[in-house]
């Protein structure tokens, strides 16, 4: 059996060794080019990919025009795959369906009858049930295709011909947009308003070196078929159009609906482009169940033909703007549509183009189409004039012509010799009908001859003058502009522009978390958890063996928890992100990037209005605002610069006007708080001088209220300003031994 698999002797004659790398590069490049040129990227001139171009051309060949009857999509798809596009029928039908969807295409190219899907993401009916015909837009794209306006090439089986590009009298690339992923490149172009694009094109005809800013005045941004509101500023939009890369933030359009007696609800009437409504509502419902939207009570879909999504607030006192901002952050009610104007320039080279480049190339194409159509018409006129010239000679010599035809065996050469006619003229005379020999016909021929001569002179003048060509192109664009003017239902601008409302980030953050009381618990070994409710008795808490409570404090899920380590770093955790209190929690080191040789010094609820004194064991420190301690990443934020063996030792609320500091040598110093500078990061200044040892405790207080401490038995002692005189000094001095009765621990306690 094994022997039979071997090639017969001499069978290796045709085997050629090929370098794998070279073979792969060559074949992958061929595949990549095929994808870029013939599948994924649109042509800048007609804005179509080959599959769309073939669909429209097939409909044109079948005679399915805007004013004819609808035809079954199965017939169209069959023609497309049979003659022009040798790919799967489903892929062709999907492309056809998309061309008919008024929520996908700003100016649909196909007029569909039947179920062509909807904004909820439901699929279209099968192609045996649906029917289609062209729209006016598709007819404009084809205008002049039978007048040699564009080149044709052989189809895949060389039985037929297909256009390389369509004449494109409509600015389709920008008007309908495009998206596609090729190999190593992608394209994403949003739809725009045709009226605005025509205005911009007319400006470029008048002023070919117009700036991007001037074009953006006329085309302020995309115009999505589903409406919505763009909240980018003009500078960002201009830059995106200049480079051909960028993006647009699109938000749903919403309004507050008053239900009387102070009760209200929000109604969303337009959603961002290419967002499936059903999926959007599912996502909002999921967030509601997960309690991520505490301001929202309910979501309902009351849509019929139009979009109507109702959002019910928790209570009438909720701020609608903050509620919507929290929804915009968490759901697709706000979406970013990328801009990457990567298209085939002149049908050959993929290039990222600016809006100026795209419109300029489209205008050049329109001018070329005009020239080609004019030359085609000129050739037709010249041919007709030649025939009419022959007819006139025949009329003037009618009897002689009849005699030659009746008597000569070969009348054609005899006619040509007798009257100096061309082959075409003689053939036309011989093909003439007897009924057209009436006297009246000579007058008709002369009239047609004069008319065509005048038209020929006009076309000659047009082809000789650049200005006249641009005038004609401008007139054609003006006609398109009239057809799709903003005054028409199809042409009106749907997407509006607005600035995002100025809202407090903190308030929005809070609005995205259900507010519940928690107790944050941290163990000696660095395990953190959050128990529900405020727990006063921490003795009942369970820990892993060999572990114990380090500290616990009350907070709420909307709070941010600041954690300061002995290395002088601050980390921030959201109260809602902490592990639940069922088990032992999670090691803090999993949640933030803490160095192994550092330990947690303290943790507390963040208060943006508060300031603290942070100090190292060696007695250096400074005042820092808590808002400067917030870290937005796992890496945390370095605040107090300390080098081993020194470490961060104290974090104390900066209140009142005085600071009392005690060293491990039991010496106390009191000095004004204003002597400590406020910084955001650093080593700080010396707070108290020590021969050996370091800081034991710090307390900030108001001199007028005196300094209070408590002993181990819980008794409270207060020293008034007068009694503290001997300890009051300047920052950085040694201080004096603590007053009598001060706790042995060297801590203020309480």
What does this structure look like?
Helix 12 runs antiparallel to helix 16. The protein is α+β, with helices and mostly antiparallel strands and 750 residues long. It is elongated, with a radius of gyration of 41 Å. Helices cover 33% and strands 23% of the residues. Among the domains are: 251-336, Gyrase A, domain 2 (2-Layer Sandwich); 365-483, Topoisomerase, domain 3, CATH 1.10.268.10; 505-737, Neuraminidase (6 Propeller). The chain has a 4-stranded mixed β-sheet. It has a 4-stranded antiparallel β-sheet with strand order 10-11-13-12, with helices on one face.
Care to count the β-strands? 35
CATH architectural arrangement of the domain at 505-737: 6 Propeller
**For the record, what is the CATH homologous superfamily label of the domain at 505-737?**
DNA gyrase/topoisomerase IV, subunit A, C-terminal
- Proportion in helices: 25-40%
| Strand order within the widest beta sheet | 14-9-8-17
**Quaternary organization:** single chain
Instruction: Provide the CATH top-level class of the domain at 505-737.
Output: Mainly Beta
The end-to-end span amounts to 93 Å
Give the biggest sheet. 4 strands, mixed
Indicate the mean pLDDT: 85
What is the percentage of strand-forming residues?
A: 15-25%
Number of helices: 19
Low-pLDDT stretches are none
Q: Based on helices, strands and strand pairing, what is the structural class?
A: alpha+beta
Query: Tell me, what's the shape?
Result: elongated
Q: What integer value in Å does the Rg equal?
A: 41 Å
CATH topology (fold) name of the domain at 505-737? Neuraminidase
